[in-house]
Request: fold
Amino acid sequence: MKSRPDYVLKIGGSILTDKTSKETFSPQLDAVIQKISRNPDGIIVHGAGSFGHPHAKEHNLHKGSREGALETSTAVKKLNNEIVKRLHKKDVEAYPVHPSSSALRRPQTEMMTRQIQQMYTEGFTPVLHGDGIVTEGQGFTVISGDEILAILERKMQTGHAGFCTSEKGVLNSERKIVNEINSLEEFEGLKLTGDDVTGGMENKVQEVLEKDIKAQIFGAEALEDFLSGEKPGTTVKK
Ligand SMILES: Nc1ncnc2c1ncn2[C@@H]1O[C@H](COP(=O)(O)OP(=O)(O)OP(=O)(O)O)[C@@H](O)[C@H]1O
Ligand SMILES: [Mg+2]
Reply:
């Protein structure tokens, strides 16, 4: 029985859903599930994509709100349920962990990492997701899958953390992949796809630097490489 996960992986909502169309799965969903099923010895976090960002935006949930909290969480749970179900069909003992009922901010973010770790030790593949979480004095706020990934890696120190997203890595203004990024000043923001209430690519870079971890950012074409231990795309570390 393994005590430490081989990896922590965040799969972007931009891979799993069509971010330009509310509550729509992406045609790539099954291919992603298939790849994970060949190496399920890790912790999975997924983004909300179009099962969360539009709902959160409508109610300003990212700025703190009571309204829209249940609606957003219900939507992203639909995506989570579908992912868990499809992993089970591929014989992966995936198990959902909903941050809305297992995390809080007061004001720092607290997550039940021991429960997740134990779940893994017992042979399950925990599947978490971006969500709304109860926040002292504000009702609910959004926790991005990016922040969750960084918290889990900070705690579990797998040495193999990654974000699979819609681009092949962090791109510069000429749209070339940046090999390594060590500070937020090096980041050049580009607007390439649909709505994201939690800050898109910049949020990933920021979370990694803030939590002082190391992580890869890469595209769907490199998912198998990452799962087999390689370090594709952009390396982010302080
Ligand atoms: N320098 C950059 N390089 C690459 N992408 C960038 C850059 N600047 C901004 N982006 C945007 O960041 C997006 C990727 O982040 P986004 O949060 O939308 O995806 P995700 O994390 O996969 O989805 P979700 O938040 O739903 O999980 C890209 O599609 C692009 O629009
Ligand atoms: Mg995002």
About this structure: The CA atoms of residues 146 and 204 lie 6 Å apart. The longest helix spans residues 69-89. The chain has one domain: 7-236. Residues 12-15, 47-49, 53, 145, 165-167, 170-171, 188-193, 196, 198, 200-201 surround adenosine-5'-triphosphate (ligand 1) (CB under 6 Å).
